[in-house]
Amino acid sequence: MSNSSPADTKMEGVSMEHNQTPPPIPSDEPKYGGFTRFEIELEFVQSLASPLYLNHLASQKYLENPAFIAYLSYLQYWQHPPYSKFLNYPGPTLKNLELLQQEKFRTDILSPDTVARLFEEGVKKSLEGPGS
Questions:
Q1: Closest listed residue to residue 97, CA positions, set 69, 118, 76
Q2: Between the chain's N and C termini, which has fewer beta carbons within 10 Å?
């Protein structure tokens, strides 16, 4: 991939229409820089599990961009099977994707305290183990 950030890559050539359908599960779909749309969106949505990455997106003003916010809304399809089974960390990924739908959270994630709280919650969950 190029030197652009993952967020930059996602904004290029992606329609932000509300009626856009999710990409098909891996198949013979077209490639973008050698990757399918499914692979690109999977990589990006999984990065949302990181509170530091969310903070980075906010600090770069992506979370103020209406087109980017629409893209985050579109990515909600990852909450449903058969897509969610491909996520490595479905808990934090889907939780943060849901939180990003809220304007207040998109502002709050700029705060180091909010980032620290998300990290602490993640550590507690990992110590509790699966199914907790």
A1: 76
A2: C
Residues 52-73: pLDDT tens digits? 999 999 999 999 999 999 999 9
Cβ proximity of 121 and 89 under 8 Å = no
Q: Which two tokens stand for residue 54?
A: 């969310």
Angle at 52 between CA 46 and CA 54, to 5 degrees: 60
Distances (CA, A) of 9 to 3, 14, 27, 36, 37: 10, 9, 21, 13, 11
Q: Would you say 84 and 94 are in contact if contact means Cβ atoms under 8 Å apart? A: yes
Give the model confidence (pLDDT) of 113-131 as tens digits.
Answer: 999 999 998 877 777 766 5
For tokens 């990515």, name the residue.
Answer: 75
Structure tokens at 67: 């087109």
Binning the chain into helix, strand and coil, the percentages to the nearest 5 are 60, 5, 35
- Quick check: helix, strand or coil at residue 31? strand
Place of tokens 């990924």: 93
